[in-house]
Amino acid sequence: MDQRQTKEDEIQRIVQLSGISRSTIFRYFAGKRIRFSSQQSIEEALLEIKKENSISTGRADLSETENTKEVVVSINSSTFDQFQGNSEALSGIIDEAGRQNVRVRLERDMKTDRLGVGVIILGKHDPEESEECSFLSTEHIPFIVVNRMLEEEHTSYVASNVYACARDVCRHLIDEGCHRIMFWGEQNTRVSRDKFKGYCSALEGAGIPFDRQLVFSDEIPLPDVFSQISTMEPSPDAFLFMDDETATVALRLAVENGLRVPQDLAISGMNDLGSSKSIIPSLTSVRIPFRKLGMLALDMLLRKISDPDLLAVKITVRHELIIRDSTRRIPGRF
What is the pLDDT along the chain (334 residues), one digit of tens a residue? Predict the structure, then answer.
Protein backbone atom coordinates (compact mmCIF):
# COMPACT_ATOMS: atom_id res chain seq x y z
CA MET A 1 0.00 0.00 0.00
CA ASP A 2 1.45 3.37 -1.01
CA GLN A 3 1.77 6.36 1.31
CA ARG A 4 -1.21 8.16 -0.27
CA GLN A 5 -3.50 5.18 0.35
CA THR A 6 -2.23 4.87 3.94
CA LYS A 7 -3.06 8.52 4.60
CA GLU A 8 -6.49 8.12 3.00
CA ASP A 9 -7.18 5.13 5.25
CA GLU A 10 -6.15 7.17 8.28
CA ILE A 11 -8.48 10.03 7.29
CA GLN A 12 -11.37 7.62 6.82
CA ARG A 13 -10.68 6.00 10.20
CA ILE A 14 -10.63 9.44 11.88
CA VAL A 15 -14.02 10.20 10.29
CA GLN A 16 -15.39 6.90 11.68
CA LEU A 17 -14.04 7.42 15.19
CA SER A 18 -14.69 11.15 15.58
CA GLY A 19 -17.76 11.84 13.46
CA ILE A 20 -15.98 14.95 12.14
CA SER A 21 -16.23 15.88 8.46
CA ARG A 22 -13.32 15.28 6.09
CA SER A 23 -13.04 19.00 5.32
CA THR A 24 -12.64 19.83 9.01
CA ILE A 25 -10.03 17.08 9.41
CA PHE A 26 -8.07 18.47 6.47
CA ARG A 27 -8.22 21.93 8.06
CA TYR A 28 -6.82 20.44 11.28
CA PHE A 29 -3.87 18.82 9.48
CA ALA A 30 -3.24 22.10 7.62
CA GLY A 31 -2.82 23.86 10.97
CA LYS A 32 -5.95 25.98 10.56
CA ARG A 33 -8.20 26.92 13.46
CA ILE A 34 -11.24 24.72 14.07
CA ARG A 35 -13.71 24.42 16.93
CA PHE A 36 -12.20 23.11 20.13
CA SER A 37 -14.74 20.27 20.36
CA SER A 38 -13.81 19.14 16.83
CA GLN A 39 -10.09 19.42 17.60
CA GLN A 40 -10.52 17.32 20.74
CA SER A 41 -12.49 14.62 18.87
CA ILE A 42 -9.85 14.42 16.13
CA GLU A 43 -6.98 14.15 18.62
CA GLU A 44 -8.80 11.48 20.63
CA ALA A 45 -9.30 9.57 17.36
CA LEU A 46 -5.58 9.89 16.57
CA LEU A 47 -4.73 8.44 19.97
CA GLU A 48 -7.08 5.52 19.34
CA ILE A 49 -5.45 4.90 15.94
CA LYS A 50 -2.00 4.88 17.57
CA LYS A 51 -3.28 2.22 19.99
CA GLU A 52 -4.75 0.15 17.14
CA ASN A 53 -1.47 0.36 15.24
CA SER A 54 0.51 -0.76 18.27
CA ILE A 55 -1.69 -3.83 18.60
CA SER A 56 -1.54 -4.70 14.88
CA THR A 57 2.27 -4.52 14.86
CA GLY A 58 2.61 -6.87 17.81
CA ARG A 59 3.39 -4.29 20.48
CA ALA A 60 1.90 -4.75 23.94
CA ASP A 61 -1.73 -3.76 24.48
CA LEU A 62 -1.71 -0.31 26.08
CA SER A 63 -4.65 -1.15 28.30
CA GLU A 64 -2.95 -4.21 29.82
CA THR A 65 0.74 -3.35 30.01
CA GLU A 66 1.90 -2.66 33.56
CA ASN A 67 4.50 -0.18 32.34
CA THR A 68 1.97 1.93 30.48
CA LYS A 69 1.58 5.45 31.84
CA GLU A 70 -1.32 7.85 31.60
CA VAL A 71 -1.03 11.62 31.57
CA VAL A 72 -3.76 14.16 32.11
CA VAL A 73 -3.62 17.38 30.08
CA SER A 74 -5.58 19.96 32.06
CA ILE A 75 -6.88 22.83 29.95
CA ASN A 76 -9.21 25.80 30.26
CA SER A 77 -12.18 24.97 28.05
CA SER A 78 -13.44 28.53 27.66
CA THR A 79 -10.25 30.10 26.28
CA PHE A 80 -8.04 27.24 25.14
CA ASP A 81 -8.84 27.39 21.42
CA GLN A 82 -8.51 31.16 21.23
CA PHE A 83 -4.73 30.84 21.02
CA GLN A 84 -3.05 28.83 18.27
CA GLY A 85 0.00 28.14 20.43
CA ASN A 86 -2.10 25.96 22.76
CA SER A 87 -3.10 23.71 19.86
CA GLU A 88 0.51 23.43 18.71
CA ALA A 89 1.69 22.51 22.21
CA LEU A 90 -1.08 19.92 22.54
CA SER A 91 -0.04 18.43 19.21
CA GLY A 92 3.50 18.10 20.53
CA ILE A 93 2.26 16.38 23.69
CA ILE A 94 0.22 13.86 21.69
CA ASP A 95 3.06 13.10 19.27
CA GLU A 96 5.52 12.54 22.11
CA ALA A 97 2.97 10.40 23.95
CA GLY A 98 2.66 8.17 20.90
CA ARG A 99 6.43 7.85 20.69
CA GLN A 100 6.74 6.92 24.38
CA ASN A 101 3.68 4.64 24.53
CA VAL A 102 1.73 6.88 26.89
CA ARG A 103 -2.00 7.45 27.08
CA VAL A 104 -3.19 11.07 27.15
CA ARG A 105 -6.47 12.15 28.70
CA LEU A 106 -7.77 15.68 28.11
CA GLU A 107 -9.68 17.27 30.97
CA ARG A 108 -11.40 20.62 30.91
CA ASP A 109 -10.75 22.70 34.01
CA MET A 110 -9.44 21.34 37.31
CA LYS A 111 -10.65 18.04 38.74
CA THR A 112 -9.87 16.69 42.20
CA ASP A 113 -10.05 13.01 41.21
CA ARG A 114 -6.79 12.83 39.31
CA LEU A 115 -6.32 9.20 38.36
CA GLY A 116 -3.41 9.68 35.96
CA VAL A 117 0.19 9.37 37.05
CA GLY A 118 0.91 12.99 36.09
CA VAL A 119 -0.65 16.24 34.94
CA ILE A 120 0.33 18.79 32.28
CA ILE A 121 -1.28 22.20 32.77
CA LEU A 122 -1.74 23.96 29.44
CA GLY A 123 -3.26 27.29 28.46
CA LYS A 124 -4.54 28.37 31.88
CA HIS A 125 -4.21 31.72 33.61
CA ASP A 126 -4.39 32.91 37.19
CA PRO A 127 -6.14 32.21 39.48
CA GLU A 128 -7.11 28.80 38.03
CA GLU A 129 -3.49 27.95 37.26
CA SER A 130 -2.25 28.80 40.78
CA GLU A 131 -5.13 26.92 42.38
CA GLU A 132 -4.40 23.77 40.43
CA CYS A 133 -0.65 23.95 41.06
CA SER A 134 -1.32 24.28 44.78
CA PHE A 135 -3.72 21.33 44.78
CA LEU A 136 -1.36 19.05 42.86
CA SER A 137 1.56 19.98 45.10
CA THR A 138 -0.46 19.25 48.23
CA GLU A 139 -1.57 15.88 46.85
CA HIS A 140 1.99 15.03 45.71
CA ILE A 141 0.84 14.49 42.14
CA PRO A 142 3.64 15.07 39.58
CA PHE A 143 2.82 17.95 37.25
CA ILE A 144 4.39 20.41 34.85
CA VAL A 145 3.14 23.73 33.49
CA VAL A 146 3.55 24.67 29.82
CA ASN A 147 4.77 28.15 28.82
CA ARG A 148 4.72 29.70 32.28
CA MET A 149 7.90 30.60 34.14
CA LEU A 150 6.89 30.07 37.77
CA GLU A 151 9.00 31.08 40.74
CA GLU A 152 7.69 28.51 43.23
CA GLU A 153 10.56 26.24 44.26
CA HIS A 154 8.87 22.89 43.65
CA THR A 155 6.86 23.86 40.55
CA SER A 156 8.05 22.47 37.22
CA TYR A 157 7.66 24.21 33.87
CA VAL A 158 8.73 24.14 30.23
CA ALA A 159 8.44 27.64 28.80
CA SER A 160 9.70 30.40 26.63
CA ASN A 161 10.83 33.57 28.39
CA VAL A 162 8.07 35.95 27.33
CA TYR A 163 9.73 38.76 29.30
CA ALA A 164 12.79 38.40 27.06
CA CYS A 165 10.60 38.06 23.97
CA ALA A 166 8.95 41.43 24.54
CA ARG A 167 12.24 43.02 25.57
CA ASP A 168 13.95 41.84 22.38
CA VAL A 169 11.15 43.12 20.14
CA CYS A 170 11.19 46.50 21.86
CA ARG A 171 14.99 46.71 21.60
CA HIS A 172 14.69 46.04 17.87
CA LEU A 173 12.17 48.88 17.50
CA ILE A 174 14.55 51.18 19.35
CA ASP A 175 17.42 50.10 17.09
CA GLU A 176 15.24 51.08 14.13
CA GLY A 177 15.02 54.62 15.51
CA CYS A 178 11.70 54.37 17.36
CA HIS A 179 11.42 56.23 20.68
CA ARG A 180 7.66 56.65 21.12
CA ILE A 181 6.63 52.99 21.32
CA MET A 182 3.05 52.16 22.23
CA PHE A 183 2.08 48.93 24.02
CA TRP A 184 -1.39 47.35 23.81
CA GLY A 185 -2.70 44.22 25.49
CA GLU A 186 -4.31 42.59 28.46
CA GLN A 187 -2.85 43.48 31.84
CA ASN A 188 -4.29 40.86 34.18
CA THR A 189 -2.41 37.62 33.42
CA ARG A 190 1.04 36.37 34.36
CA VAL A 191 2.11 36.27 30.70
CA SER A 192 0.85 39.78 29.93
CA ARG A 193 2.56 41.20 33.01
CA ASP A 194 5.86 39.57 32.05
CA LYS A 195 5.61 40.96 28.51
CA PHE A 196 4.89 44.42 29.84
CA LYS A 197 7.93 44.20 32.12
CA GLY A 198 10.07 43.24 29.12
CA TYR A 199 8.80 46.29 27.25
CA CYS A 200 9.62 48.55 30.20
CA SER A 201 13.06 46.98 30.59
CA ALA A 202 13.99 47.75 26.98
CA LEU A 203 12.91 51.37 27.36
CA GLU A 204 14.88 51.75 30.57
CA GLY A 205 17.98 50.18 29.05
CA ALA A 206 17.86 52.68 26.19
CA GLY A 207 17.31 55.63 28.50
CA ILE A 208 13.81 56.28 27.14
CA PRO A 209 11.40 57.62 29.80
CA PHE A 210 8.32 55.48 30.39
CA ASP A 211 5.13 57.24 29.26
CA ARG A 212 1.87 55.86 30.66
CA GLN A 213 -0.06 57.54 27.83
CA LEU A 214 1.53 55.11 25.37
CA VAL A 215 0.21 52.02 27.20
CA PHE A 216 -3.29 50.79 26.34
CA SER A 217 -5.35 48.04 27.94
CA ASP A 218 -7.16 45.58 25.69
CA GLU A 219 -10.37 46.92 27.22
CA ILE A 220 -9.95 49.92 24.90
CA PRO A 221 -11.06 49.00 21.36
CA LEU A 222 -8.18 49.16 18.92
CA PRO A 223 -10.00 51.50 16.48
CA ASP A 224 -10.40 53.97 19.37
CA VAL A 225 -6.67 53.79 20.04
CA PHE A 226 -5.86 54.59 16.42
CA SER A 227 -8.24 57.52 16.46
CA GLN A 228 -6.13 59.02 19.28
CA ILE A 229 -2.76 58.63 17.55
CA SER A 230 -3.15 61.76 15.39
CA THR A 231 -3.80 63.88 18.48
CA MET A 232 -0.79 62.66 20.48
CA GLU A 233 2.23 64.93 20.77
CA PRO A 234 4.88 63.97 19.98
CA SER A 235 3.46 61.34 17.62
CA PRO A 236 4.04 57.64 18.40
CA ASP A 237 6.38 55.91 15.95
CA ALA A 238 5.88 52.24 16.84
CA PHE A 239 3.33 49.84 18.24
CA LEU A 240 4.20 46.62 20.10
CA PHE A 241 1.47 43.99 20.40
CA MET A 242 1.46 40.86 22.53
CA ASP A 243 0.11 38.68 19.72
CA ASP A 244 0.10 38.52 15.93
CA GLU A 245 -3.68 38.45 15.58
CA THR A 246 -4.04 41.93 17.06
CA ALA A 247 -0.98 43.23 15.24
CA THR A 248 -2.52 42.08 11.95
CA VAL A 249 -5.67 44.06 12.70
CA ALA A 250 -3.47 47.06 13.52
CA LEU A 251 -1.84 46.88 10.08
CA ARG A 252 -5.26 47.35 8.50
CA LEU A 253 -6.24 50.14 10.88
CA ALA A 254 -2.99 51.96 10.17
CA VAL A 255 -3.80 52.06 6.47
CA GLU A 256 -7.37 53.18 7.18
CA ASN A 257 -6.00 56.05 9.26
CA GLY A 258 -3.54 57.18 6.60
CA LEU A 259 -0.42 55.85 8.32
CA ARG A 260 2.42 54.22 6.40
CA VAL A 261 3.93 51.08 7.90
CA PRO A 262 6.73 51.19 8.91
CA GLN A 263 7.65 54.75 7.85
CA ASP A 264 5.05 56.45 10.06
CA LEU A 265 4.35 53.61 12.46
CA ALA A 266 6.35 50.41 12.89
CA ILE A 267 4.18 47.48 14.05
CA SER A 268 5.31 44.23 15.65
CA GLY A 269 3.56 41.22 17.10
CA MET A 270 4.49 38.06 18.97
CA ASN A 271 4.07 34.26 18.50
CA ASP A 272 4.79 34.29 14.71
CA LEU A 273 1.60 32.85 13.27
CA GLY A 274 1.75 31.20 9.88
CA SER A 275 0.10 34.16 8.16
CA SER A 276 2.54 36.71 9.57
CA LYS A 277 5.03 36.29 6.74
CA SER A 278 2.45 36.37 3.94
CA ILE A 279 0.52 39.56 4.77
CA ILE A 280 1.61 42.92 3.33
CA PRO A 281 3.70 44.29 4.87
CA SER A 282 5.00 41.09 6.42
CA LEU A 283 4.85 41.21 10.20
CA THR A 284 7.83 41.29 12.56
CA SER A 285 7.23 38.82 15.36
CA VAL A 286 8.82 36.41 17.85
CA ARG A 287 8.85 32.72 17.04
CA ILE A 288 8.14 30.46 20.00
CA PRO A 289 8.40 26.66 19.44
CA PHE A 290 5.08 25.73 21.03
CA ARG A 291 5.06 22.20 19.63
CA LYS A 292 8.50 21.60 21.11
CA LEU A 293 7.26 22.94 24.46
CA GLY A 294 4.55 20.27 24.44
CA MET A 295 6.97 17.49 23.55
CA LEU A 296 9.40 18.53 26.27
CA ALA A 297 6.61 18.86 28.84
CA LEU A 298 5.54 15.25 28.30
CA ASP A 299 9.12 13.99 28.38
CA MET A 300 10.04 15.96 31.52
CA LEU A 301 6.87 14.88 33.31
CA LEU A 302 7.70 11.24 32.69
CA ARG A 303 11.17 11.85 34.13
CA LYS A 304 9.61 13.30 37.27
CA ILE A 305 7.28 10.33 37.56
CA SER A 306 10.15 7.84 37.26
CA ASP A 307 12.40 9.73 39.70
CA PRO A 308 10.61 10.87 42.90
CA ASP A 309 13.78 12.66 44.04
CA LEU A 310 13.46 15.08 41.12
CA LEU A 311 11.53 17.83 42.90
CA ALA A 312 11.28 20.30 40.03
CA VAL A 313 12.24 20.69 36.38
CA LYS A 314 12.53 24.22 35.01
CA ILE A 315 13.34 24.46 31.30
CA THR A 316 13.45 27.63 29.20
CA VAL A 317 13.33 27.18 25.42
CA ARG A 318 15.00 29.60 23.03
CA HIS A 319 12.82 32.08 21.14
CA GLU A 320 13.70 33.78 17.85
CA LEU A 321 13.09 37.37 16.76
CA ILE A 322 11.81 37.32 13.17
CA ILE A 323 12.35 40.74 11.58
CA ARG A 324 10.13 41.55 8.61
CA ASP A 325 8.93 44.55 6.63
CA SER A 326 6.54 45.99 9.22
CA THR A 327 9.46 47.34 11.31
CA ARG A 328 12.31 47.86 8.79
CA ARG A 329 12.64 51.64 9.03
CA ILE A 330 16.39 52.00 8.41
CA PRO A 331 17.44 51.14 4.80
CA GLY A 332 20.05 48.44 4.49
CA ARG A 333 19.46 46.88 7.93
CA PHE A 334 18.84 43.13 7.98
Answer: 444 556 678 888 888 888 888 888 887 776 666 776 787 788 778 877 866 765 554 444 433 334 447 899 999 867 777 788 898 999 999 999 999 989 898 888 676 666 667 999 999 888 888 899 999 998 888 999 999 998 888 899 999 999 999 999 999 999 999 999 999 987 778 888 999 999 999 999 999 999 999 999 988 999 999 999 989 999 999 999 999 999 999 999 999 999 999 999 999 999 997 788 889 999 999 999 999 999 999 999 999 988 888 889 999 999 999 999 999 987 655 4
C-alpha span between 111 and 40 (Å, rounded)? 18
Predicted TM-score (pTM) of the model is 0.76
b/e burial code for range 8-33 (CB count within 10 A of at least 16 → b) = eebeeebbebbebeeebbebbeeeee
Provide the sign of the torsion angle of the four alpha carbons 59, 62, 63, 69, taken in this order.
positive
Residue 14 near residue 49 (C-beta atoms within 8 A): yes
Task: Decide the pairing of beta strands 181-185 and 215-217.
Answer: parallel
